Amino acid sequence: MNDDRTTPAPDSPFRPDPGDRDAAPQFVLPLVVRIERGAPPARTDALETAARAVLTMLTDERSVGDGEWARAIRDWQDARIRKVVRRARGAEWRRAEALPGITVTGKSAEVRVFPPVPLDGWPKDLARLQVSGTDLDDPDPVPPADPGVPTLWLNPELEMSAGKAMAQAGHGAQLAWWELPDAAREAWHAAGFPLAVRTADPADWPALAGGGLPTVRDAGFTEIAPGSCTVVADHPALR
């Protein structure tokens, strides 16, 4: 699922001019969610796990400084910060796990995130995985987010597949990370990136979307109209 228009923080590495970002070489951050036939993950857990996977990749020692993935991360962030979620099971998942990356687990979900790759340069074992078919459900009612926990609010007016929403949640988490002051970043990282993903109440959405918090606007490559506001990242330290 391609999701690549965001509102960057002033001190983020994202190019401020959309034209510059379009002209740069394009990369994509691959995420693979494990969906076994008899034991699919719950939808909300998959969304939250994907968001934490993005944060884990951004802060891994291999992604910063002179780390082996740092150049790929910088090149990816210099362009449109695309993310694509694919699904795997069985032998497909085992092949994906053999590639360099990080597996993040939730209550029922497993998501593996990989260092960015050129838009047309996916590893063979990832390129063959399906993008469609990531429609997941929550078997039990989803409780309200705990007060004080960073929450990624989904637009209640949009219908998105689980894969699309996972990529959008990852974008929201990334924007929140770049907006945070250093102390708040360190605290969130040290705590293991607790977060919640919830669909906003329609009555609350206008205030959330217009409240100055980091927002994700989709480029419109898949599923929804260009410019749609999909996620608002509500971290207590940003209020």
Model description:
It is built from eight helices and ten strands. By secondary structure, the protein is an alpha+beta fold. The strands form two sheets. Strands 1-9-10-7-8 form a five-stranded mixed beta sheet. The longest helix has 18 residues, at 162-179. It is globular and about 45 Å long. The model is unreliable at 1-18 (pLDDT under 50).
Strand content: 15-25%
Question: What's the total helix number?
Answer: 8
Over all CA atoms, what is the radius of gyration? Answer: 17 Å
The percent of residues in helical segments reads: 25-40%
Q: End-to-end distance, in Å?
A: 30 Å
Strand order of the largest sheet: 1-9-10-7-8
C-alpha geometry: globular
Mean pLDDT, rounded to whole units? 89
How many β strands by DSSP? 10
> What structural class is derived from the secondary structure elements?
alpha+beta
Q: Main sheet?
A: 5 strands, mixed
Instruction: Catalogue the unreliable spans.
Output: 1-18
Output the helix-strand order.
EHEHHEHEEEHEHHEHEE
How are the SSEs placed, and which strands pair?
Blueprint: E1 5-6, H1 18-23, E2 27-34, H2 43-59, H3 70-78, E3 82-88, H4 90-97, E4 102-105, E5 110-113, E6 117-118, H5 124-127, E7 151-154, H6 162-179, H7 182-190, E8 196-199, H8 205-209, E9 215-217, E10 229-234
Parallel strand pairs: 2-3, 7-8
Antiparallel strand pairs: 1-9, 2-5, 2-6, 4-5, 7-10, 9-10
Helix pairs in contact: 2-6
Key features of this structure:
5-stranded mixed sheet, alpha+beta, 32% helix, 239 residues, globular, disordered N terminus
